[in-house]
Design a protein that fits this description.
Blueprint (H helix, E strand, L loop, with lengths): L1 H5 L5 H29 L1 H4 L11 H21 L3 H19 L9 H16 L6 H12 L1
Family: Belongs to the DoxX family.
Main location: membrane
Organism: Prevotella bivia DSM 20514
Length: 143
């Protein structure tokens, strides 16, 4: 309905692809913000960050930053989206189960929401408006 209002002359496929782009950008940037906060507070968080895999708090924090910041930026632009969604989803599963005690409807409701969006995005793919599509078109034109 909103996309119909914003783009009254666009066909349904264009509206769907635009919605996929907006979903990637919004959820990717929101999660990247959390990763950036972890990055700038690394020294303060490193000693007390949860270590669910027994690899050390610093390593666990670094992996969370990778999943939440680096992979999120790849997700935003649509670069290898299915690959970058794996660490992002793992970070959300760890947040739900280990960091927040598994109560999906408590404080970790946001992590569950992210996880649902990431699973749906993994199924749908990046869509037309993505770096992957741009690279694929360039490679196809070369060959």
């Amino acid at each position: 309905m909103i996309l119909g209002f914003l783009f009254p002359n666009a066909n349904e496929q264009t509206k769907l692809l635009t919605l996929m782009l907006l979903t990637r950008v919004i959820f990717g940037l929101l999660l990247a913000h959390h990763g950036f906060e972890k990055l700038i507070n690394f020294n303060g968080m490193a000693a007390t960050f949860p270590d669910p895999f027994g690899i050390g708090s610093e390593t666990s924090l670094a992996m969370a930053i990778f999943g939440e910041l680096v992979c999120s930026l790849g997700f935003v632009v649509g670069f290898l989206p299915r690959l970058v969604l794996i660490p992002m989803s793992i970070a959300m599963i760890v947040a739900i189960l280990a960091a927040h005690g598994g109560d999906v409807f408590g404080e970790e409701e946001y992590a569950f929401l992210y996880l649902v969006v990431f699973i749906l995005s993994w199924i749908a793919g990046a869509g037309r408006y993505s770096v992957d599509r741009f690279i694929g078109n360039k490679v196809k034109n070369i060959g």
